[in-house]
Design a protein that fits this description.
By secondary structure, this protein is an all-beta fold. The chain has one helix at 2-6, and strands spanning 38-44, 60-66, 72-73, 77-80, 89-90, 96-97, 102-107, 136-143, 146-154, 163-165, 177-179. The protein has a single domain (1-14, 25-165), classed as Sandwich (Immunoglobulin-like). The structure holds calcium ion (CA) (3 copies). One calcium ion binds next to loops.
């Protein structure tokens, strides 16, 4: 039973939410923008003891992976947990992710712009958290008013210290698998 619940995680190749009018499905998107070769490769939405950020906090995180053969610049890429606000958080400009490389972003709402007024913990800290009870993670590429959905995940209830990951890295053909977290490293089986 637990296993069945854990497998209830879908990728963008399946329906994400019920809103079919958003035009965000990458197969039907009318944007002329080319989708960068980067995916949401792994996420941990219930981090109890796995890894902590520089502030010593065991926060949620999202791992991106470059499936291409050259560097992907972060410029124009956005992460969000809200389908109605896909451009919620802009990835830091002037940086990128090497071919076959990983990049980890802390989903801790420690970007320095939250209601708490707490200072920013760095430019790889998102403006939102990941709900343990489940929600969405959306990666969007937007330039000059045009945008294309790059990847999207919708997940259900999470277990402590178990991440959801594509296996092998970058595999968008099947649902993510749950297992031992591998932050900024190759996903295990
Ligand atoms: Ca933090
Ligand atoms: Ca959230
Ligand atoms: Ca990993």
């Amino acid at each position: 039973m637990t296993l069945l619940l854990l497998l209830a995680c879908t990728s963008t190749d399946l329906a994400v939410g019920d809103d079919t009018s958003s035009g965000k499905d990458k197969d039907t998107d009318t944007s002329s923008l080319e989708r960068p070769p980067v995916v949401i490769n792994e996420f941990l939405a219930f981090n109890d003891t796995i890894n902590s950020d520089a502030a010593g906090e065991f926060d949620d995180w999202v791992e991106l992976y470059n499936t291409g053969t050259s560097i992907v610049q972060f410029d124009g890429l956005y992460l969000s947990d809200d389908q109605d606000e896909p451009l919620k958080w802009a990835l830091p400009t002037g940086q990128g992710i090497d071919a076959g490389g990983f990049a980890l972003f802390w989903a801790d709402d420690d970007d320095g712009e939250g209601d708490s007024g707490a200072p920013s913990q760095g430019d790889r800290h998102l403006s939102f958290n990941l709900a343990r009870a489940g929600e969405s993670i959306i990666l969007t590429y937007a330039v000059a008013g045009d945008s294309v959905m790059v990847d999207a995940i919708q997940y259900g209830t999470q277990q402590p210290d178990i991440s959801a990951a594509r296996h092998p890295d970058g595999n968008e053909d099947q649902p993510m698998e749950y297992g031992v977290p591998t932050p900024e490293a190759t996903n295990g089986p």
